[in-house]
Amino acid sequence: MTAAFNPAEMIGTWVAAILTLAMFSFLYKDNPVFKVGESVFLGVALAYGMVLAYYDTVYPQIVQKFTGDDAAHGVMLIFTPIIPMVLGIFILLRLIPRLGWLSRISFAVFIGGYSGIAVPSVIAGTLLPQLTDTMRPFGPGWVGWVTQLILVIGVFATLLFFFFSLEHRGTVGRISRVGVFFIMVAMGASFGNTVMARVSLLIGRFQFLYYDWIQHAILHRS
User: Fold this and answer.
1) d(CA 2, CA 219)
2) Cβ–Cβ < 8 Å for 133, 151
3) Which domain holds residue 149?
4) C-alpha neighbours within 13 Å on the C-beta side of residue 135
């Protein structure tokens, strides 16, 4: 069945397909075609990120605070748009060597504030659930017993591996090596999850090249 011809859609599909093939050309070797595609991707991503940051952050959080219906006044005008705006300008001053030291103030506020927000989140989202799962009663059934036993041994051995106040010799060393095994299993699972995500992106690109480019744009089939 012949698909309806849309010039704008066809041009976009051809551009995307050419850039995709340019990225795949790196599998052969580093070449000028890949460098052009890489530069285009970085430029478009940077421009898109800047526009997104303006309309999602700068405009609602700064511009509308001065001009919008919810314009801030008094103390709120100082703390909501002005201070963040000044701190953002300080970061840009890294481009000026004489004033670059002002960016340290912004980074200190950002890192300190982010740490203050992240630490409780990590405790509530990671540490406490881990403690809760570790302290659950054994069972029900032998599967529950084995699962809970492996969990307790893994947590204890892993924590002992990171306990550097004791020299890792003898019994402590043997238990620490068990902890290394659990750490490697966790890292392997995390790496496997990352690989699966990348393979999923690769499959998506192959599907785009076959269905959108070859079938639709070249053969004009729906």
Assistant:
1) 8
2) yes
3) 137-222
4) 6
